Amino acid sequence: MRTVKTAAIRDAVAAMLSKCTIDAEPFITDSFEKALETERNPVARGFLEQLQENYRLAGQKRLPICQDTGCDAVFVELGQSVCLEGDYIEDMINEGIRRATKEAYLRASMVKDPIKRGNTGDNTPAMVHYEIVPGDTVRISVLPKGAGCENMSRIAMLRPADGIEGIKKVVLNAVVEGGGNHCPPLCIGVGIGGSFEKVASLAKAALLLPFNERSGIPHIAELEDELITMINESDVGPQGLGGDTTAIGLRVLSCPTHIASLPVAVNISCHALRRATMVL
């Protein structure tokens, strides 16, 4: 049995959020460079160049790369051989968010009640997902997502007869119908299988995977390639203005499902993909 202090979890959440909301990860900036080599639409090229400048200035001035600093999804993989010591883990996660909101000048974007709409003032609470795993470590991932792209996400309970073509249709329609509202170029997480609630969590978790890799399951890897090719042939383009660069990354997670079900979920991130992971 290994002891992990919940105060360390608080500190990790604060540090990760403060950094990932300001500093674009190399995958994003590298993707813009590669897109500029192949993008044929002059308007799209101009927008990609503006994004590069925005990211450069955010890092230089230590300001968020987007004004919508998001609703914070936090994924906790808790080793079953870990003993947590200190205040309640979720309280400490939210305390880390409060600290980052103050220190990194993040916009307060959370309301206490979905009907009354009163702002909490500190960007809490987080949407926390727990998973008990083998081992004696705690793996924490943060994924702050703005409303523009989150609102364009969707879930579909398909019939098994809809098959692979039905899956492709759901994903492509989500991107095309979103137009510029989800702020392309996009990073896209797709979940397939499970149940109504499980497939949505799979799609969001897929956004934490490396986008420069492919699934180790051959037919899923093939689907990932087919989907991103279809999406980039849609001519949605950066900010919905047309072009070859609608998505820069797409990953798929799948799991077993009922014999009569084919759940599909699409979780969309704008170009400002903000994520970080730390192991304690």
Automatic annotation (TrEMBL):
Pfam family, one: Fumerase
Signal peptide coordinates: none
Keyword Iron: yes
Domain Fe-S hydro-lyase tartrate dehydratase alpha-type catalytic residues, every copy: 11-278
Keywords: 4Fe-4S, Iron, Iron-sulfur, Lyase, Metal-binding
GO molecular function, one term: metal ion binding
Keyword ATP-binding: no
Similarity comment: Belongs to the class-I fumarase family.
Protein's name according to its UniProt entry: Fumarate hydratase
Organism: Candidatus Auribacter fodinae
